[in-house]
Design brief:
This protein is mainly α and 237 residues long. It is built from 10 helices and 2 strands. Strands 1-2 form a two-stranded antiparallel sheet. The N terminus and C terminus are likely disordered. InterPro entries: GntR_C, TF_FadR/GntR_C, Tscrpt_reg_HTH_GntR, WH-like_DNA-bd_sf, WH_DNA-bd_sf.
Length: 237
């Protein structure tokens, strides 16, 4: 039966990684696959889904982290046993827009609190992260940029002096990182880093209103990045 499987609703308007995650989960449940059953090969599954293999790999990586899939190098991908009691695990397979919406709320809270609680050392660390982001954007190293960007936002969260907020941000960041790697564009990354600089200035100046304005502008541009990347990947060759 698995040879005839196709996703019931071909993805159109959802981010591609998010869509592929949903389709693979649909395959598992719709075909009654059990723990240990083998999925089709990567080229075959990419062809059936009508997406590029790079997008499929990111989706499989997320599902592997969640325990939904068991990835065995040199053997294939098998149905795994999800760890349902882990928040990070559940978020790993959640819809990207929903996760991003919550992250946006957290970043706005960071912008309101960090300017009033930050230390000089944290401001210096934020500026170092901004410089690193700029350098990676100039060389076109998207993966390194996103790593530096994650460090920037983690330091900003730490500047809020709220340990719960820091932990929640980190969980949400890990859920969104695969999607960011797929849709990231160097030009947009440079623009995002400009917003980082404005945010650091506001945090250093102790100006929550300016920090919130910079954060909201940055979030709006990130939404645009996701929207532009929805149809960026096509069927594999």
């Amino acid at each position: 039966m698995i040879d005839q499987w196709r996703p019931s609703t071909p993805p159109q308007r959802r981010p591609l990684v998010d869509q592929v995650i949903a389709s693979v989960r649909e395959l598992i449940s719709g075909e009654g696959l059990e723990v240990g059953d083998r999925l089709p090969s990567e080229p075959d599954l990419a062809r059936r889904l009508g997406v590029g293999r790079s997008t499929l790999r990111e989706a499989i990586r997320v599902l592997g982290h969640a325990g939904v899939l068991d990835i065995k190098q040199g053997s294939g991908t098998y149905v795994g046993r999800p760890r349902e009691d882990d928040l990070a695990t559940r978020l790993a397979a959640a819809r990207v827009p929903e996760v991003f919406e919550v992250r946006a709320a957290l970043e706005t809270l960071v912008a309101r609190t960090a300017p009033l609680r930050r230390t000089d050392e944290q401001v210096a660390a934020l500026r170092t992260a901004v410089r690193d982001c700029r350098g990676h954007a100039e060389t076109g190293d998207v993966t390194a940029f996103i790593e530096a960007d994650s460090r920037f936002h983690r330091i900003a969260a730490e500047a809020s002096a709220n340990s719960v907020l820091v932990e929640l941000y980190e969980v949400l960041r890990r859920s969104l990182e695969p999607a960011l790697l797929v849709v990231a564009d160097v030009v947009e990354l440079r623009r995002a880093n400009d917003r980082h600089e404005v945010l650091v200035d506001a945090i250093e100046a102790g100006d929550p209103d300016a920090a919130v304005a910079a954060t909201q502008a940055h979030l709006a541009e990130t939404v645009t990045l996701f929207e532009a990347g929805r149809d960026a990947d096509g069927p594999s060759a």
